[in-house]
Design goal:
The structure is a single chain. The protein is α/β, with parallel strands linked by helices. Helices cover 30% and strands 23% of the residues. It contains 19 helices and 29 strands. The strands form 7 sheets. Strands 10-11-9-12-13-8-14 form a 7-stranded parallel sheet, sandwiched between helices. A 6-stranded parallel sheet has the order 15-25-24-16-23-22, with helices on both faces. The longest helix is centred in the N-terminal third of the chain and has 16 residues. The chain binds adenosine-5'-diphosphate (ADP) and zinc ion (ZN).
Length: 721
């Protein structure tokens, strides 16, 4: 009799054993369908010795596997990666497996599906809901449910529109092959510096071995062009490349750029895909047919059949850290995947993380440098504006110097970018009479006013409320004031100052899909936009040659709070947004508004001396035993009942093992003390680098029990403090 150990796609379950029925062939990695109670669930066959089961069942009580999916088995390197990730981040292996199988939706057998799109026929009279649906769907296509979600209406509204001929069905097959990128198409002439770096990368791809490489080049130095040469090499060898980007908003411009270089777009993988696209992409990735995949974090665990190269673009970005579910860092897992797959991993960044620089300093990562911008473009000049000496008029946020620079830029018919990392109109609404502040009922966060959509919104849980007319506390009318600026408020100020200028707000509210991002890029390139006002979303990767002025509205914002990485992150953010200026023939100028012109971050940016800033930051981390010299892990205890969260967290704290080289702090309220209606307490574990802190935590928590309503999650190498 043959039995198989199966890791099922249910994070609450450990692996279970099954009987392999006569005539069925399985091996480790086979993707199978297995019975569980009255249901059936997908899972993957695993080596029993690598996946201990605590539910050993005798042969006579085993249930039969139902079937084997007609897709390639998960290869050993990916299985090792799943085990490693589960171990390192203290997550259930099944939760990691889910990411590899894309929640199994890709396994579904159907080869064709019916999707829907607008016909272009718009009936004369439409209910507001139907009108809203037609407007929001626009060019998009998808299942009824997908369109309903996009349009924020019920399925019935979509079906109604099908009935009256405004929406029509289309058959989509998921087996259409992807075109093969052409490595010779649109190859650029590289500068000598670029050629040297590209040669080394090509060599690394040819070597078919693990090689972590930091591609460290100033903004606009041609990092993308250079790593494209490595991608070309992998394509020639018929091997797959994965390019990870920090945001889905960046995929669309990337696709365009890729097509200009390789003649075809690569396969895109992100959360905005329709289900049929997801299925098609997953299958092509698993079969090895998809030669280049570009995607956000979640593309990291896909079952590439024949991986030859991994690129992490903008590798310093904090959005590579996942804060929900499996709390992993995609940059670090990418390096591990490179190790298991024996392929090179390129980390591209103009502002690498201190952790990454330290790996270079220790000789564990190789470094390739591009010191100058491509094609004679110069680095922008950076000038601080002292908000105390040169303040904006009352109730305004742009200092006179910045306004003057904007005026000149517009006169020269060039484009400008104003950066403020705050969505919405105002971060806080306050009652002038009684001091009441609008707070989210579910989270420790203010309700942020969004004037464009006329709502107050919580940026953590999404809770919405209509804009209040009177204060709920004292009932006073006309007493509510918006405090502080968000991008919408800056846009108002710009509109008042420059009524003829065309402006655009760029945040995750306005660029919520790759299509919207593409539209924005198109308008910038066609110079239909004069002034962009944006959050961190605009700091990344964009290349607009006519953009010559950048204004940082509040550079002190990032420095507040006791975050370990605050200074580093602030430096990276401003250097990145500054890097959008003067990328073409015209020189760029950056103005940084600040109340602290002497802050090390500002001085480093102005002098261009990043090296001493990094050296000082690195030293202070070393001194504090902070990453990368020591390690942290957060143990987050949450419950809907505050006292339950506190009591449990204290009990866990009291049972902390005494281990040489490890301290446990807290519990204290977590960085977000309340999130989505759950109170969160955190214990912070600080340990020496060499200590196997996961093992300690696993044994520590493994021996404990807590009430049903309590959740305990571990955040290894946390990003929020
Ligand atoms: P980075 O990623 O380092 O910021 P990019 O790769 O975006 O830099 O390059 C900046 C701009 O210069 C892009 O428009 C790119 O196409 C162009 N560029 C860089 N190197 C070359 C080259 N060798 N030939 C032609 N254009 C180049
Ligand atoms: Zn909230």
């Amino acid at each position: 009799m043959s039995r198989a150990r199966v890791l099922l796609l249910n994070a609450a379950l450990g692996p279970l054993d099954y009987r392999v029925p006569y005539g069925m062939a399985v091996e480790p990695g086979s993707i199978v369908l297995a019975p569980l109670g009255p249901r059936q669930l997908a899972g993957v066959v695993w080596e029993p010795e690598r996946m201990p089961s605590d539910a050993e069942v005798g042969d006579n009580r085993l249930r039969n596997l139902v079937s084997v999916y007609d897709v390639p088995p998960l290869a050993a390197p990916l299985r090792r990666l799943i085990e490693w990730t589960a171990n390192y981040y203290l997550a259930p292996p099944a939760a990691v497996l889910r990411m590899a199988l894309a929640s199994a939706s890709a396994l579904d057998g159907a080869r064709s599906v019916t999707e829907y799109r607008l016909t272009g026929h718009v009936p004369d009279r439409l209910t507001p809901q139907r009108a809203q649906a037609l407007e929001r769907i626009g060019e998009r296509q998808g299942l009824v449910r997908e369109l309903a979600t996009i349009a924020d209406v019920s399925d019935g509204v979509i079906r109604g529109l099908v009935k009256i001929g405004a929406i029509e069905p289309v058959e989509v097959t998921i087996d259409d092959p992807y075109p093969i990128p052409d490595p010779a198409f649109g190859a650029p002439d590289l500068s000598p510096d670029q050629t040297a770096a590209a040669d080394r990368l090509r060599e690394a791809v040819k070597a078919e071995a693990f090689a972590p490489i930091l591609l460290d080049g100033v903004t606009g130095s041609g990092k993308t062009e250079v790593y494209f040469e490595a991608v070309a090499e992998a394509i020639r060898a018929g091997r797959q490349t994965l390019v990870l980007l920090p945001e889905i908003a960046l995929t669309e411009p990337f696709l365009k750029r890729f097509a200009a270089r390789f003649g075809h777009v690569p396969v895109a993988w992100h959360s905005d895909l329709r289900q049929s696209q997801r299925r098609r992409a997953w299958r092509a990735i698993a079969s090895g047919e998809a030669l280049v995949t570009v995607g956000a974090r979640s593309a990291l665990f896909l079952p590439y059949r024949n991986l030859g190269l991994i690129v992490v673009d903008e590798a310093h970005e904090t959005s590579f850290k996942q804060e929900d579910g499996v709390m992993y860092h995609a940059r670090d897992v990418a390096v591990m995947r490179g190790q298991f797959e024996q392929v090179p991993v390129i980390l591209a960044s103009a502002t690498p993380a201190i952790e990454t620089r330290q790996m270079v300093a220790q000789g564990r990562y190789e470094e390739l440098k591009l010191a100058a911008r491509h094609g004679g473009a110069t680095m922008p000049e950076i000038t601080p504006i002292d908000l105390l000496a040169d303040p904006p008029p009352r109730g305004r946020w742009l200092a006179p110097t910045l306004v003057a620079a904007l005026t000149e830029t517009l006169e020269r018919k060039e484009q400008a970018l104003l950066f403020l990392n705050r969505r919405g109109y105002a971060p806080l609404t306050l009652c002038r009479t009684c001091g009441h502040r609008f707070q989210c009922p579910n989270c420790t966060a203010w309700m942020v006013e969004h004037r464009l959509v006329r709502r107050l919104q919580c940026h953590h849980c999404g809770h919405l409320m209509p804009p209040p007319r009177a204060c709920p506390e004292c009932n006073e009318e006309d007493s509510l004031v918006a405090c502080g600026p968000g991008v919408e408020r800056i846009a108002d100020e710009v509109a008042a100052l420059f009524p003829d200028a065309a402006t655009a707000i760029v945040t995750s509210d306005t660029l919520w899909s790759p299509a919207k991002a593409a539209e924005f890029v198109g308008k910038m390139e066609a110079r239909e936009i004069d002034i962009v006002i944006g959050t961190q979303l605009v700091t990344k990767g964009y290349h607009f040659p006519n953009l010559t002025l950048v204004g940082v509205i509040d550079s002190d914002l990032g420095l507040s709070g006791g975050d370990l990485r605050a200074a580093e992150r602030s430096f990276q953010q401003i250097a990145q947004v500054a890097g959008r200026a003067g990328r073409g023939e015209k020189p760029g100028h950056v103005f940084v508004q600040t109340r602290e012109t002497k802050a090390p971050v500002i001085e480093a940016l102005v002098s261009g001396d990043a090296a001493s800033f990094y050296a000082a930051e690195t030293e202070s981390r070393r001194h504090a035993g902070a990453p990368p010299f020591g390690r942290y892990a957060g143990i987050i205890v949450s419950s809907e009942q505050l006292d339950e969260a506190v009591t449990t967290a204290r009990a866990i704290g009291r049972s902390a093992p005494r281990v040489e080289g490890m301290e446990v702090y807290g519990p204290a309220p977590a960085p977000l003390a309340m999130l989505r209606g759950r109170h969160r307490q955190r214990l912070l574990v600080h340990a020496r680098r060499a200590l196997d802190v996961q093992d300690v935590i696993r044994k520590w928590l493994g021996g404990l029990e807590w009430p049903r309503g309590v959740r305990v999650a571990v955040d290894v190498d946390p990003y929020s403090f």
